[in-house]
Amino acid sequence: MKSIIQFLVILATLAGMVILSFFSKSMDEGNTSASMYYGILAILIIGAFILLFRWDKRRIQKEEFELRQRVDARVRVALNYKHPVEFYAKPSQFGFLVFIFILSLGSIYLGVYLLSDLPSTEWLLGAAFLSGGILFGIASFASGKRLIGRPVIRLDLRGVKHFRFGFIPWSEVTDVFLQAAVIKGNQVFSLRVATINKSIYLARLPRWLRVFHKLEPGGLSLPLPLSEQDARIVDGVAKGYANYAGARTIEQTISRKVVDEISSIQTSQQRMKRLQELMTETSGEFEKRRQEISRTNMLYSVILILGVIAIFVGAWVKSK
């Protein structure tokens, strides 16, 4: 549905530009009837735009409400029965890995070609393509091997088991929440898990991948190549199991602090006033923490994109 709406917006924009050009031409020629005709068409297109956006807004709100209902229902079932829950990668993830692997082969071929064709004093560009192709090729192959027939993440009362980080017990967890980022219109999800000793779980990663995760603030970032519904269910079940297991998360600590402070206040009016103040303070702290993580991830993405652009520009310049 999203793609259809985007297509309609593009089509209506092109039609509006054509009508605007005809309207300007008829005005220059003094053709009043044609100007009125094109003006009415322009008004109709603007009205269609408004109706489309209003309808799309209602559609998004309805889909969001239905999604929350489905997520809440599945989370309640999992928390009531307290059985292990597994989630598998969405099919499009394997297509993405195949695409990355093909690009890696192309990068390796280009690197070998440049190393054999360029002078020995200009080997840096070819080495960059070759090493980058090998790196991304190994990463895509290893990720595909780990995801085929295996769950991305498994949650139970003992802890969380991730296909990349292995098993993390709830007793080690100090915070857990879902993070979403939009990349080219697609949402990418990760489960942020803060632990008492982050280095233990980073040591389970390959050395080349460990460097990137060490730079990330806020604990471990567990990639979730899942649908939005499954990612939200993971978030709800993870928080529920962590609370049930007695994990000392930040949310639990703040909740206990709020309860203790409110219970010490005598009058109900003072309790409500203090409760509102505490809710404002805690929501501000959570929002600030998530914004810091989002800014850091955005910086990494910009650096990566600029690096790739620089490599291709360098290859183009060398080919001239």
UniProtKB/TrEMBL annotation:
Keyword annotations for this protein, in alphabetical order, are: Membrane, Transmembrane, Transmembrane helix
User: Can you tell me where the transmembrane regions are?
Assistant: 7-24, 36-53, 94-116, 122-144, 298-317
Tell me where on the tree of life, at the top rank, the source sits. Bacteria
Name-wise, this protein is: Uncharacterized protein
